[in-house]
C-alpha cells in the first residue's frame, strides 16, 4: 500500500570482470497471491561503474513512471570461490594452519565482521527424479548462504550426477542456513525443482 516503498535490502552477486554483464532490475506489484503486475524495469551496466566505491544511482523505470534509488558497490570478491576437489582451499596443510590461527579464540574480536568461512564439497547426487520425457534429467546444484549464491555446472542426461566441486563462502551470520537445491535445466524455460536440503550453520 505504498507508492514510495523503502526496502533497505542488500544483495551480494559474484561478478567476474572478464564478463560484460548488465544488472537487470524489475519492480512488481502484487494484488493478491495470484495476480502480479510489472511496474517497470531498469538496467545498470556494471562495467561502467567506478570500482572500490559505493555508487548512488537514481534509475528511472523504463516506459513506466517512477524511479529506483540504489547503492551499488563493485569490489574485489573475498572469501568466495569455486574449485575442483584436487585444488580446493584448505587442501594445503600450511593454508589450513593459517586459517586455524586466524579464527582461534584469542583472535575472535580482531574483526567482528569476519565470522569465518564455510567450505562445501558437492560430490554427487543419487537417484534423482526424472524430469524429461527420456526418463533422464539435466541436473545442476545451487548453494545459497544468506544472499550469496553459487552453482555447479549441469550434468546432462543423468540421474546420478557427479559434480566434484568445492565452494567457499564467507560467513556473515552464524545463524544463517545453507540451502542446497537441485534443479533440472530446461533450456529457455525456468528450471524444474528436483529437491532441496537446508543445513543450519550451527548444526555443523
TrEMBL record:
It holds the Pfam family C2. One of its GO terms (molecular function) is calcium ion binding. One of its GO terms (biological process) is regulation of neurotransmitter secretion. Residues 1-59, 93-204 form the C2 domain. Gene3D superfamilies: C2 domain (2.60.40.150). Keywords: Calcium, Membrane, Metal-binding, Repeat, Transmembrane, Transmembrane helix. It is a multi-pass membrane protein. InterPro entries: C2_dom, C2_domain_sf. The keyword Repeat applies. The keyword Endoplasmic reticulum does not apply. GO terms for cellular component: synaptic vesicle membrane. It is found in: Membrane. It comes from the Eukaryota. PANTHER family: C2 DOMAIN-CONTAINING PROTEIN, MULTIPLE C2 AND TRANSMEMBRANE DOMAIN-CONTAINING PROTEIN 2. Belongs to the MCTP family. This is MCTP2 protein. It comes from Pomatostomus ruficeps. The lineage of its organism: Eukaryota, Metazoa, Chordata, Craniata, Vertebrata.
